[in-house]
Amino acid sequence: MNESDTGLRVLVTGVTGYLGSRLVVPLLAAGHRVRVLTRDADKLEGLPWAGDVEVSEGDATDPDACAAALADIDVAYYLLHSMDGGGDLSERDHEMAQTFADAADKAQVRRIIYLGGLHPDDEELSEHLASRVDVGNVFLDSPCRPPCCRQRS
């Protein structure tokens, strides 16, 4: 990806999931250059857009893989979670999001777009929803947040 390309340079994570796999098509149609981060590039075989994206193979828990995937990216879609049943979900989600946010900051990514969940402020949340809130807070505290967002008080 280089400066002469039209559109934004976009990274999509979670690309083998329901949302990530469907997000790629409209991004390409809008003229954006799309890179995807996947742990296993073979899982992209057969997807109609697979030949139209740049593939970065690696795990978002790895700072080097994040740095490579985020190099020269304007906007990153973070559609990851640790719902595989291994270990402490909340801790793993937090660490993965922090690794990604730190790499995005170093790469001077302008914005991270994250899909969280709505929740009432006055109710105890499940571990999954509490983890989603925590990951959102990691990104709110990141320099890659939208200009309209400010540090939480």
TrEMBL record:
Signal peptide: none annotated. InterPro entries: NAD(P)-bd_dom, NAD(P)-bd_dom_sf, NAD(P)-dependent_oxidoreduct. This is NAD(P)H-binding protein. Residues 14-124 form the NAD(P)-binding domain. Coiled coil: none annotated. It holds the Pfam family NAD_binding_10.
